């Protein structure tokens, strides 16, 4: 979808909508079962930035990395999850998986 001079893929639109909804949930204190709203907002913004900077990412491998990262937020602290995401993303880029 073209929005002025910018092109947004469906995945970026989904991440933008998810970020907006998580921000509203954090603002209005809506419950999200099992997940921490602040952690999910941080992860979605990080994913939006990495997906926006590298638009030629293969979707399947990135989707699996995103799912694993989101489910790791249930059990691990945010620093370790971000570290896992960035290191796995770097290895995927170096090994040309993504």
TrEMBL record:
<protein>
    <submittedName>
        <fullName>Uncharacterized protein</fullName>
    </submittedName>
</protein>
<keyword id="KW-0812">Transmembrane</keyword>
<feature type="transmembrane region" description="Helical">
    <location>
        <begin position="40"/>
        <end position="57"/>
    </location>
</feature>
<keyword id="KW-0472">Membrane</keyword>
<keyword id="KW-1133">Transmembrane helix</keyword>
<feature type="transmembrane region" description="Helical">
    <location>
        <begin position="13"/>
        <end position="33"/>
    </location>
</feature>
<feature type="transmembrane region" description="Helical">
    <location>
        <begin position="63"/>
        <end position="92"/>
    </location>
</feature>
């Amino acid at each position: 979808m073209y929005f002025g001079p910018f092109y947004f893929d469906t995945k970026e639109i989904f991440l933008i909508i998810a970020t907006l909804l998580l921000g509203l949930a954090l603002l209005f204190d809506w419950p999200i079962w099992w997940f921490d709203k602040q952690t999910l907002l941080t992860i979605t913004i990080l994913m939006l930035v990495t997906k926006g900077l590298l638009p030629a990412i293969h979707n399947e491998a990135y989707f699996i990395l995103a799912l694993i990262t989101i489910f790791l937020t249930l059990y691990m602290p945010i620093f370790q999850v971000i570290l896992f995401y960035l290191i796995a993303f770097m290895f995927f880029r170096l090994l040309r998986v993504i």
